[in-house]
Amino acid sequence: MKYIEWAGKNFIGMFEAGGEQFMGYMTGIVPLLIVLLTFTYSVIAFIGEERVDRAIRYCSKYMILRYSLMPILAVLMLTNPMAYTFGKFVKEEEKPAFYDAAVSFVHPVTGLFPYANAGELFVYLGIANGVTKAGFSQSSLAVRYFLVGIVVILIRGIVTERLTKFMMAREAKKATA
């Protein structure tokens, strides 16, 4: 009987703790996400969609911008998973590399811009909680994640583009032989 009482109490306790956590999100992170999204869309509207479109087309011409600035803008403006639609601005053989760069940036951006990939927020907050308990700054972690993320997406984009072009050339050579 004692075990049944314990199981019942702790079973409902798990849901009570979940409810408290949910209310914390509703009064904390959800309003922040809404304000950040509103700000981003306001900036796009202020600049003008056509200008933003031209800027992205310009970035797609240069490898360094294609795998640094383009994925950053895509993730910040369109959020995950819509960010991958920026791939329409790159050549067919560059699409896998752009996708690789963009998908690799959805986690590092979470510390500074949590609205960009809310699904990763729980992972980031778990890591940030441990960093804070260790006595370090969560802000410093967010900035470092962001900066390292830029370096990583640039490297991944360049490497993936070269591998894709190599494999496409090899396949073309096989087809003609």
TrEMBL record:
Keyword line: Membrane, Transmembrane, Transmembrane helix
- Name the Pfam families for this protein: EII-GUT
- Segments crossing the lipid bilayer: 22-47, 67-86, 142-159
Q: Which InterPro entries did the record assign?
A: PTS_IID_sorb
Q: Which GO terms describe its biological process?
A: phosphoenolpyruvate-dependent sugar phosphotransferase system
Q: Name one GO cellular component term.
A: membrane
Q: Which NCBIfam families match?
A: EII-GUT
The protein's name is PTS sorbitol transporter subunit IIC
Q: Which organism is it from?
A: Enterococcus avium ATCC 14025
